[in-house]
Amino acid sequence: MKDRNAFISPRTSSFRGAVRALLFAGAALALQATSAPVMAQEAASAALPKPSFDLEDPARIASGKKRFNKTCAGYCHGAEGVGGRAPDFKGRTDLPELFLGAEDNDYAVPVKDIEMEAGKSYRLRITAKGQKEYKFFASEFFRGVWMNQIVINHLEVHMAGPPHHLEFDDQGTIAVEFVTVRAGEFPWSVQGLESRGMTGRFIVK
């Protein structure tokens, strides 16, 4: 049998050599691309300054927590929600419950005016006891307080701004938790039932 290489022309041999060179070059580039990010990450890590103390030292962690609570969290509302420069979150005062309607009078409002002080934390329960649909509006008041949350049947609603209004399609209670900011007299009303006496005031001193 004749040697197979005897039938390969010089041109074919050169072509195969070029292909082999391209394959080797591609493999080298792939290897370099794979190792480059790892090498760069290792170089960046080596360039970072080393901390002068153990970051997992319990004593250091406790000291940092104390400093944060004093100068950051503690500066605003207090590390435990009380005692900061801003109003307390804890120790809020429960205001007199505001009833809308009664079992024998859909338009009864036993308490119309509710007083409070600026800069304090409060919880106001608004309860619909009548058979009507009540749309409770207190736009100016809601814009003048820092709204913490609204609670309905142990479900919490947190907002970045004031609510437009509170609507009662059935009997039930909505609890509004807030911190008063602006002093003044702010009216509230039940839309469409103002002429039936369903109005009042929030007085912030």
Q: What do you see in this structure?
A:
This protein has 205 residues and is of the alpha/beta class. The chain folds into two domains: 4-47; 93-204, Immunoglobulin-like, CATH 2.60.40. Helix content is 30%, strand content 28%. The strands form two sheets. Strands 1, 2, 4, 6, 7 and 9 form a six-stranded mixed β-sheet that branches. Strand 10 and strand 11 form a beta hairpin. The model has no long low-confidence stretch (mean pLDDT 77).
Give a nutshell description of this structure.
The chain has helices at residues 10-47, 58-76, 139-143; strands spanning 93-94, 98-100, 113-116, 121-128, 134-137, 145-152, 155-157, 166-168, 172-180, 184-190, 199-204.
Structural class comes to alpha/beta
CATH architecture descriptor name of the largest domain: Sandwich
Question: Which CATH class of the largest domain?
Answer: Mainly Beta
Strand segment tally: 11
Name the helicity range.
25-40%
* CA gyration radius, whole angstroms: 36 Å
